[in-house]
Design brief:
Number of helices: 3
Keywords: Signal
Order of helices and strands: HEEEEEEHEEEEEEEEHE
Distance between the termini: 58 Å
Low-confidence stretches: 2-10, 12-19
Oligomer: single chain
CATH topology of the largest domain: Jelly Rolls
Mean pLDDT: 83
Shape: elongated
Number of strands: 15
Number of domains: 2
CATH architecture of the largest domain: Sandwich
Structural class: mainly beta
Strand content: 35-45%
CATH class of the largest domain: Mainly Beta
C-alpha cells in the first residue's frame, strides 16, 4: 500500500508540474487561470492584493468586492448609502470652483435688458454693453433623482477704477444651468467720495428644481449695463483694476449644492 501511495504522489507531482496556467472545473477548456462552470461556495475568507510574501487584504465589515475594469485587480469598497427617510431631501452632491482671472468690463453703451427665467446665455450677453462668462467657474454636476433642488451660489468682489465722485457702473451677473438663466442680480457700484478704487463683495443665489436625471453644467456670466455720470474707466468683476486690492482678494467662487429625495428603487451603487 505504501508503494502505491508513493506512486500516486509521484504521478500527482508530475501532473501538477505539467499544468501551465489554466485550471477548469466542470470544463475541459478553461478560459482563465481558474474557470469554474457551476456554483462557487466559499466557507472562509477572501484575500485581495497578496503576493509571494504577503497574504493580502481582507474586506471590512459591510464592504463589497468591486471590479476596477479591464486589466485591473478587484478591490474592496465600503458602501456609503445610509438609511433615507421617505420624502426627505438630502445633500447628495456638492461642487465648487474658483477663479482669479475674472472679467474686466470696458466702457460701453447702455443695455438695460429685463432678464427672464431660463433665457439663454447668448441672449443675456447679447446686444450692446460689454460682458462675458467667467469660464473657469464652469462646473459639471450630476442629478441622480428626479425630485431635486439645486442651489447655486456665486460670490465675487466688484472693483471700480475711478477717482470721480458719484461716477460708477450699473451691472448684472447671472448663474446658468446648461446655458439657461436660473438666477440674476443687478447692482450699481459708484464712487461716493473722493477716495479711489471702491470695491464691493457681491453675492448671487440662484436655484433650480426637479431637473431630469443626467449631468449638467453650471456657468456664471456678467454684463455691464450702463455707465453712471459719464464714467469711462475699467470695472472688474473678480478682477482687481486698481492697486488697493489684488486679484487674490477679488477672486470669484461658485458653489453647487444638489439636494435630492432618494428613490427607494434606485440601485445605482455608491462607494467610498
Amino acid at each position: 500500500m505504501k508503494i502505491l501511495n508513493n506512486i500516486l504522489l509521484i504521478n500527482l507531482a508530475f501532473i501538477s508540474s505539467s499544468l501551465f496556467a489554466q485550471v477548469g472545473v466542470n470544463t475541459n477548456t478553461p478560459r482563465t487561470t481558474l474557470d469554474i462552470q457551476g456554483d462557487l461556495g466559499i466557507r472562509s475568507k477572501i484575500y485581495l492584493g497578496g503576493d509571494e510574501t504577503i497574504t493580502g487584504k481582507l474586506g471590512e465589515v459591510g464592504s463589497v468586492l468591486v471590479s476596477q475594469g479591464a486589466n485591473q485587480p478587484p478591490t474592496w469598497k465600503v458602501l456609503r448609502r445610509p438609511e433615507f427617510k421617505p420624502e426627505t431631501y438630502y445633500l447628495i452632491n456638492y461642487e465648487a470652483s474658483s477663479d482669479v482671472g475674472g472679467l474686466t468690463l470696458r466702457n460701453g453703451s447702455a443695455n438695460k435688458t429685463l432678464y427672464t427665467k431660463n433665457m439663454s446665455l447668448s441672449s443675456f450677453l447679447g446686444g450692446s454693453g460689454d460682458g462675458g462668462e467667467i469660464s473657469k467657474l464652469s462646473k459639471t454636476f450630476k442629478v441622480n433623482n428626479s425630485a431635486n433642488k439645486i442651489g447655486l451660489v456665486f460670490e465675487t468682489v466688484v472693483h471700480l477704477n475711478s477717482n470721480s465722485t458719484n461716477a460708477g457702473v450699473d451691472f448684472a451677473c447671472g448663474v446658468f444651468v446648461d446655458d439657461q438663466l436660473k438666477g440674476v442680480r443687478v447692482f450699481t457700484l459708484n464712487q461716493p467720495t473722493a477716495s479711489v478704487g471702491p470695491f464691493y463683495t457681491f453675492t448671487l443665489l440662484g436655484s433650480a428644481e426637479n431637473l431630469p436625471k443626467k449631468e449638467y453644467t453650471a456657468k456664471v456670466a456678467c454684463k455691464r449695463r450702463e455707465s453712471i455720470n459719464s464714467f469711462t474707466g475699467d470695472f472688474g468683476i473678480g478682477k482687481a483694476v486698481y492697486t488697493n486690492i489684488n486679484d487674490f482678494m477679488a477672486q470669484s467662487t461658485l458653489r453647487i449644492e444638489v439636494l435630492e429625495i432618494p428613490d427607494a428603487n434606485n440601485n445605482e451603487p455608491v462607494y467610498n
